[in-house]
Automatic annotation (TrEMBL), chain A:
Catalytically driven reaction(s): a quinone + NADH + 5 H(+)(in) = a quinol + NAD(+) + 4 H(+)(out)
Name under which the protein is recorded: NADH-quinone oxidoreductase subunit J
Family (UniProt): Belongs to the complex I subunit 6 family.
GO cellular component, one term: plasma membrane
Function of the molecule: NDH-1 shuttles electrons from NADH, via FMN and iron-sulfur (Fe-S) centers, to quinones in the respiratory chain. Couples the redox reaction to proton translocation (for every two electrons transferred, four hydrogen ions are translocated across the cytoplasmic membrane), and thus conserves the redox energy in a proton gradient.
Lineage: Bacteria, Pseudomonadati, Campylobacterota, Epsilonproteobacteria, Campylobacterales
Entry keyword annotation includes Thylakoid: no
NCBIfam families linked: PRK06638.2-2
A GO molecular-function annotation: oxidoreductase activity
Location relative to the cell: Cell membrane
Automatic annotation (TrEMBL), chain B:
Entry's Gene Ontology molecular function annotations: NADH dehydrogenase (quinone) (non-electrogenic) activity; quinone binding
Any GO BP: ATP synthesis coupled electron transport
One annotated Gene Ontology cellular component of this protein: plasma membrane
Family: Belongs to the complex I subunit 4L family.
Reactions catalysed: a quinone + NADH + 5 H(+)(in) = a quinol + NAD(+) + 4 H(+)(out)
Oligomeric form and interacting partners: NDH-1 is composed of 14 different subunits. Subunits NuoA, H, J, K, L, M, N constitute the membrane sector of the complex.
Pfam family, one: Oxidored_q2
Function, as annotated: NDH-1 shuttles electrons from NADH, via FMN and iron-sulfur (Fe-S) centers, to quinones in the respiratory chain. The immediate electron acceptor for the enzyme in this species is believed to be ubiquinone. Couples the redox reaction to proton translocation (for every two electrons transferred, four hydrogen ions are translocated across the cytoplasmic membrane), and thus conserves the redox energy in a proton gradient.
Record's protein name: NADH-quinone oxidoreductase subunit K
Length: 186, 99
């Protein structure tokens, strides 16, 4: 009973939040509703007995990724409304519908089709976090290390890309110097 | 709740993200839509993991989160670079891509 109520409540909330993210014209609304939707999605992980993933969802997604987006938005003109023109909205909805149908078929067919054997069975007496830890550091150790290196490379790449020409601080320059710089850029 | 309920919910969210990717012209909004799609797949993985008593799905969801995090770092760096260069993050401004 509790699971059914929670499922429908959070499903409704998540879909509402993400719909606002998709359809709003204000970048700040999009960011905050996306963060809220991520939090609500973590509720599904807790419902599905994946407590570790739920915590990671909150910490990594809502904590780190959203903070990164909020930081990135400081560079852009985030208060101006986003204007978008779609030439053929009917085509968009038709395409989405077809792909949605395709995805439902793809997801459901293996579940109906065969009897799946558990490759890495869940140990009830251990609890989710310990189970995930054991599997992560035995069966998935090399992917884990590769993911660590990938995150490091991505972080350095992001810093280098975003940090270009940041050695120049406009606040320490005089008005004339800034004007000269702007003329040079033009 | 059955597995199908979770999968249908995940597909709904995925389609919302897909709609955003098709609809959005602002690159930052496009990124948001991508995040929604990645999250929906995570739910599907966690649900399949639970209903088959198998941890592989949770592992894949974990790695998807790691990949999404690095995607944001690199993508946002590129976006900031593009914004400094052209003053806009509209998708149409990338049609030429002459540098």
């Amino acid at each position: 009973m509790f699971e059914i109520v929670a499922f429908y409540l959070f499903a409704f909330l998540t879909i509402t939040m993400f719909s606002i993210t998709i359809f709003t014209n204000n970048a700040l609304y999009a960011l905050s509703t996306l963060a809220a939707g991520m939090i609500f999605i973590s509720a599904f992980f807790f419902l599905l007995d994946a407590q570790f993933l739920g915590a990671v969802q909150i910490v990594v997604y809502t904590g780190a990724v959203m903070a990164l987006y909020a930081f990135g938005m400081m560079f852009f003109d985030s208060l101006s409304t986003v204007e978008e023109h779609i030439k053929n909205p009917r085509l968009v909805f038709l395409l989405s519908g077809i792909i949605a149908l395709l995805i439902v078929i793809i997801f459901v067919s293996p579940v109906i089709g065969e009897n799946v054997q558990a490759n890495l069975p869940v140990h009830e007496q251990w609890g989710n976090t310990q189970d995930v830890g054991v599997v992560l550091f035995t069966k998935y150790l090399i992917p884990f290390e590769i993911a660590a290196i990938m995150l490091l490379v991505a972080m350095i790449g992001g810093i280098i890309l975003a940090g270009k020409k940041m050695d120049l601080s406009y606040s320490e320059l005089s008005e004339d110097e800034i004007e000269n710089l702007e003329k040079e850029e033009l | 709740m059955s597995l199908n309920a979770y999968l249908i919910f995940s597909t709904l969210i995925f389609c919302l993200g897909l709609l955003g990717v098709i609809r959005r012209k602002n690159l930052l909004m496009l990124f948001f839509s991508t995040e929604i799609m990645l999250n929906s797949v995570n739910i599907a993985f966690a649900a399949i993991s639970k209903f088959h008593g198998d941890l592989t799905g949770q592992m894949f969801a974990f790695f998807i989160i790691a990949i999404a995090a690095s995607e944001v770092a690199v993508g946002l760096g590129l976006l900031i670079l593009w914004y400094k260069k052209t003053g806009t993050i509209n998708l149409d401004s990338m049609q030429k891509l002459k540098g």
